[in-house]
Design brief:
The chain is an alpha+beta fold. Helix content is 26%, strand content 40%. It has a six-stranded antiparallel sheet, with no helix packed on it. β2 and β3 form a beta hairpin. The longest helix is centred in the N-terminal third of the chain and has 28 residues. It is elongated, with a radius of gyration of 24 Å. The termini are far apart.
Length: 109
Amino acid sequence: MDEQRGESEEANGGLAARLARLEERVDRLGRELRTRRLVLLDDEGAERLVAEVTDRVVLLRLLLSGDRPPGDGLVLFAAPATEDLPPGCGLQVWQDGGLVTFLEWWESD
């Protein structure tokens, strides 16, 4: 009987530790969310705001909804230096799947 009690307490102790770690993580979610891609959807489930980091380039896309081609909207980006390009940032306007106009700054400009 004592042996069963010891096993039960050990199992509950492990569960209590796991629960404490889970509560700590849930508490942190209220203060900070860390991810490589964050997407906000509209009522129809279409992506409307996408924030992501791809190959060290930070992108924030504000997308139009409806029957528009994917990606139509505004794109704000910030890119670190690479072998081919200096660091830079910019704002682009996309329509019908193509770049309409842009404002970009590169360190060498």
